[in-house]
Amino acid sequence: MSQSAIFAPFFAMIFLTLIVWVYMYVRRIGFITSSGVSGADLAKPGELARIAPAAVSNPSDNLKNLFELPVLFYALVLFLFVTGQVDRAYLIAAWIFVAFRVLHSAVHCTFNLVMLRFYLYAIASLALWFIARSAMN
After folding, report:
1. Residues 79/47, Cβ–Cβ less than 8 Å
2. In 29-132, at which residue ranges do the beta strands (DSSP E only) sit?
3. R_g of the chain, CA atoms, integer Å
4. Three-class SS state of 92
5. Is a pLDDT exceeding 80 seen at residue 137?
6. N or C: lower Cβ tally within 10 Å for the chain?
């Protein structure tokens, strides 16, 4: 197996982060322009979070979440590549992580059913911990 195959899920996670980032700004800009909130009001710390509806704040919360466990994913992928440990099991686990993070983001940014989001997050996390645990042996 090519060691560089692990970079497909790596870049897929980066692409997901970019998509959520763009979506967050589309939602924010739409809210700001339609609500008539002034720039001076938005300059107050936490003001946008206080006045924005969930449809605006959830994508922002999801973007922050994409800089938590996925950071460990990026580090582990680089570790696997540098140490030449990439194999089929790691590649499948990496794609499982990415797929469930995509589903998690889709739920979080739209209808936000919390228990469904939790299960998607948990499955992605288990895939990540499989990679971490196996890579350290």
Report:
1. no
2. none
3. 18
4. helix
5. no
6. C
Assess contact for 109 and 75: CB atoms under 8 A: no
Task: Read off the pLDDT of residues 72-107 as tens digits, 9 standing for 90 and up.
Answer: 999 999 999 999 999 999 999 999 999 999 999 999
Q: What is the C-alpha separation between 37 and 18, in angstroms, rounded?
A: 26
pLDDT in tens, 105-115: 999 999 999 99
* Full-model pTM: 0.94
Find the angle CA(111)-CA(45)-CA(70) to the nearest 5 degrees.
50
Rounded to 5 degrees, what are φ and ψ at 125? -65, -40
- 77-81, long-range: CB < 8 A, 24+ apart: 77/6, 77/7, 77/9, 77/10, 79/135, 80/3, 80/6, 80/131, 80/135, 81/3, 81/4, 81/6, 81/7
Q: How far apart are the first and last CA of the chain?
A: 20
Picking from 96, 107, 103, 104, the residue whose alpha carbon sits closest to that of residue 73 is 96
Is 39 in contact with 94 (CB distance < 8 Å)? no
Contacts of 115 (CB under 8 A, 6+ apart): none
